[in-house]
Amino acid sequence: MKQSAPETQGDEWDFYFSNVNDVLSSLMVNLSAIRRALDTCKPWLLWIWVHMLDPRDDGLSSEAEAPVLFRIEDRLKECLTFPCGAELLGRITGDRRREFYYYAATADGFESAVKTAMTDFASYRFDCGNQPDPEW
Prior knowledge:
alpha+beta, 18% helix
């Protein structure tokens, strides 16, 4: 299945499979982020978990659902760039959900931005949260 990665100049994305909490998962990680690690301008860790509607039996995304998950990812990017200044650094797909992990300048407006992004995907249940993490 084709993987989608955000298109940001200078980013270096890697994809691999691993067990996360004893569950087979597909991971996407921005390896170039290590050069920006401890970016004091982005001290907030933000996360969003989107619960899939039609995962494969092993909990990974199905080919049928993948296009919708990519649209969700694109919509989240649109909505989180402002007001949070969020940058996607990784994603985990497994256990019947897709998890997105961002670092951002602020968490202000984050939950509202996520709700706005997800209005076009009303059938999807999602969880989101944030915490200060200046040490990355």
